[in-house]
């Protein structure tokens, strides 16, 4: 049944991957084949010149990005003639900025500013959104300007227009091209741009989400145990995919969510959550209690910062974008702290060394991005590259780790097979023909001497044989009480054979433990057959249990002939194979051992030691 469920699980995963890949290929094909016929992307919708923060005027090149960070940028020029010829509308996507569009003589065409309290869509219907309570928060907004309506306002290809873009934040966070984009298209270009530009990347990171959501939790359970490192890595992959998707669709969220501040809050919160899952994954690679405690404090502080930032935003005190600069710094600090902890553990831990090496690209990129946020020395986003390198390395490393665990699982199954074969050998050795002949002969003699005893012996012998057969189906250790009952049946039969020459004594001080089935009987059998049975006048076999601070002990002693424990093993008729199987089963199933002491002419003592530390694991 488990194999069928696992097969269906993997089939579902494979089907999901194939479906996402087919959608991605279709969108990519459409993007390269027909995309250019529907839309034109530009930095702005004006042809002319621009100035940033009161600087020199420069010509507008709409095919190149304007990577400079700013507080206020002013553009002046004319709308391209093709927009009027083909009646192409202008879709504006803005992030965290206010903007206004006017004619050169001051006539307003379109405005998105902090002075507004009500915003109208293309049908002049009011938007009701949270921004009315957060006057200094522009959020992420999508807006379409219709050429027909602009012409009704008197705008022509020769009309000089002025576009002003302003950031409300004291610390400049984005470049012009990062926070403002324009698409010329027929009808609403935002949906076309989303399909051709964003959807292929979304499909790619949807695969990452799929990979994290299904692959690693399954990997954590499929080998029969929960591995929190796999689960935390899966959570990090999932949140990375969501964060990347959020970044890609941030300019389109306003198409479906009317409140621009909510659109912004969603994207920023995805970043917070991604950092939290990353910290927890890094913590899962730490093993020392001290380093894990420090990592817990680091992650807890970041979680508190996340909750505080969200509370400040939704109480209209400080929006999430305004808190991002501090978060960047603390993210870099957290990454450095975890890296230092990994360095500490890497001194004597090969796994920590591997994690440390794989994490180095991300650590370096986060530090560079944090510095770049304030120094503005480049427009390159190092974080994405560092994260990609680290994640690829982690995935490869984890696949190799899964392969290793799979091999160990196969080895475990082989060990279980060997244990089963050992149990069969033990069972066979304990119902050897000579034992059955002796038991049946004793019962036959009793039929004439004492029929009632013969009947009881027959029933006891049948139960004994059934217990041996049932042991083949038992895969886990059993309570000692159950083993003792089976042992008493064996000794009852042997007592019929040896009569007064065999005395049995019990000193049972504890029974609150488990052990492999049929593991004590070979020791008792040796005491009867090769200890007391070899002594002319017979003797006594004592079975006792006791509890120490660290273990439970089962002691089987006899006052028989004894043997030299230092002598080499020889073919003396003893069941050495059965004893070796017993030792191995006790060791593999309960972490225990068997110690044997013997003195020639005095007797033998065999002690089974079962550590308490293993008892809860095997119950």
Describe the structure.
The protein is of the alpha+beta class. The chain folds into 3 domains: 38-187, Sandwich (Jelly Rolls); 216-410, no CATH class; 431-618, Histidine kinase-like ATPase, C-terminal domain (Heat Shock Protein 90). The chain has helices spanning 2-34, 81-85, 147-152, 176-179, 189-222, 228-249, 260-284, 289-314, 320-345, 350-375, 382-430, 433-449, 451-470, 480-498, 521-532, 576-590, 615-618; strands at 39-42, 47-52, 58-59, 72-78, 89-95, 98-103, 108-112, 119-120, 126-127, 140-145, 161-166, 180-185, 478-479, 502-508, 514-515, 539-547, 551-558, 593-599, 603-611. A 6-stranded antiparallel sheet has the order 3-2-4-11-6-7, with no helix packed on it. β18 (593-599) and β19 form a beta hairpin. α7 runs antiparallel to α8 and α7 runs parallel beside α9. The longest helix is centred in the middle third of the chain and has 49 residues, at 382-430. The model is unreliable at 1-10, 116-121 and 126-132 (pLDDT under 50).
Figure out the total of helices: 17
Which of globular, elongated, flat, extended, rod-shaped describes the shape?
Answer: rod-shaped
**Strand content of the residues, in percent?**
15-25%
Summarize the amount of helix as a percent range. 55-70%
Strand arrangement within the widest β-sheet reads 3-2-4-11-6-7
Mean pLDDT: 77
